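INTERNAL AUDIT FORM
Audit reference: QA-55
Scope: verify that the stored structure record matches its stored sequence.
Auditor: D.O.
Record contents follow.
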Amino acid sequence: MIEFPSNFLWGAATSAYQVEGNNTHSDWWHWEKETGKENSGSACRHYELYARDFDLAQNLHHNTHRFSIEWGRIEPEEGKFSRDELNHYLDVILTLRSRNIEPMVTLHHFTNPDWFSTSIGWENNISNAYFLRYCDFVVRALAKHIRYWITINEPTIYLSHAYILGVWPPQKKSYTKAKAVADNLASAHAGTFRRIHAIYKESGLPRPAVGIAQHMQAFVPCTPAIKNRLAAYMRNKWYNFGLLDKLTREGTLDFIGINYYSRQLVDLKKWGLNNLAKDICQQNHHPLKRNSLGWEIYPDGLYDLLLELKKYRLPVIITENGICTGDDGLRWKYIYAHLNSIHRALENGVPVTGYLYWSLLDNFEWDKGFAPRFGLIDIDYTSYTRTVRESAVKFGQTCKTGILE
């Protein structure tokens, strides 16, 4: 029997664009149409059905729910803010609170207003000023109902997919622009962190907890060749810890949010900057079980990364961890193994304070469309019927008791 702390945060996560539907003012909405990608359309209709979804989360004994606010809804035109949309998100929060579920709010989860992407973009140094203005509007209205804020979700994934790999909008392959985006996102986080704390202090509210959701991978050398070990070291240092090092030096993190899914088996074909940054094993050496997107299942990597995070002496929340699969038994095995890794880290002094599965619902998985099934709850995209999976029930029992049998 494995027992977690009594005040542990248990629950699941979603993001607005992936579940709400009809986010017509967001850059992804227009990009899908321009590129012929699968359209997010009505997604899960969570914008209308959130109360029903939170009833299910309550029945599964979740005490925390992470969700995002869609910037394009709040500011559909530059400088014009929607009080109606803000009231919608206020009702989302109050609906969670009425079910004794702690809301954890993400202010930026990959998508931007279309006007922002068209006329400004994150590569522009003035981008963080626009983001801060949006955050100020949201936080002032919602502060008294929220303790946990996440400023930006997976900044390294955003810049790598949009500005290095070029598979997400705005599809600009440029290391120079990627560096500018990285700097601007870091600056936006720091500015928002300080603004949130200032707003709470001015309002006489208890100190909030403000963090970031950092995507982390286990970078493992395929062979002990020096080039593989060096590349794994460099990727870990830059991709996993570079931003965290910067933000902790600046004192702009109250907690660290970690999104962890898989490992990357590093195997360089030759020396070179692109090779050091990207090359992976193509021969299926050291095979592991995989999810439906081909990502390897490697719970030991989460344990190793958590031990490295101990140096920051900050609370750690697993803000995403999950699997897309048609095998629900494998989903539970995935959750169980990762919770076991977390408990091992707790026993070794890592201050992990919560675990949020990705995701509560099956949803729109960005450029992969609706095929990947990550949800604790199955979505029928024809009728929008919700069906609770057996893995959700088993996880719910752990949420209820704090015990992993």
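Auditor finding: record pair retrieved intact. The radius of gyration is 20 Å.
Action required: none
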